[in-house]
Amino acid sequence: MASPQALSETDRRTVAAWAADCAERVLFLFEAEAPEDGRPREAIARARAYARGELDSAGEIRRRFVAGRAAQSVTSSAAVAAARSAAQASGVAHMGAHALGAAAYAAKAVGLAGARGDSDTSDEVAWQVEHMSPEVRAALAALPPLGEDPAGPLGSGLLASGVLGSVIRDIQGRVGSTSLRRQ
After folding, report:
1. Which of 4, 5, 181, 183 is nearest to 100 (CA)?
2. Which domain holds residue 25?
3. CA separation (Å) from 12 to 65, 77, 171?
4. pTM
5. Would the CA dihedral through 126, 128, 132, 138 be positive or negative?
6. Treating both helix axes as pointing N-terminal to C-terminal, what angle do 39-51 and 9-24 enclose, rounded to 10 degrees?
7. pLDDT in tens, 98-127
8. Per the structure, how many domains does the chain have?
9. CA 104, CA 108: separation in Å to the nearest integer?
């Protein structure tokens, strides 16, 4: 049985474009430090192409780790988070829950780069939620709450703690997870 974090292919394609939007907003933080490294930009472009139906899931699943390796080529925490946001966006072809990872890393990058820290992070989350289509909101609402299902990125791993966990919980609270409404 597939994890509820996977989402249908239609929903993954829907949230991939939103995840790419989130990652693209912080790409400049990575590129300022490593302008010659195109892996995060390429990952965002692939997420958009996947969203348009131009790429298949199987091919993208094989390539999903490439942008994440770019995080090793930069030193600032904000640039690392920006690269990881792009990697999470490219991972949406594999599992829809990675869209929340892309958003969380993007918000973390903004918070690390900004002068206002948590306030900058909150402003970025507000932008992300405001720029969700009704279809994106519905797809994200179908995901289990963070930490409820261990079979995917929303399990008890890295995305469940610290700033990343706080951002994902905030987004899930704003979109109203289906699992939360059932309780």
Report:
1. 5
2. 9-182
3. 17, 28, 17
4. 0.93
5. negative
6. 140
7. 999 999 999 999 999 988 878 999 999 999
8. 1
9. 6
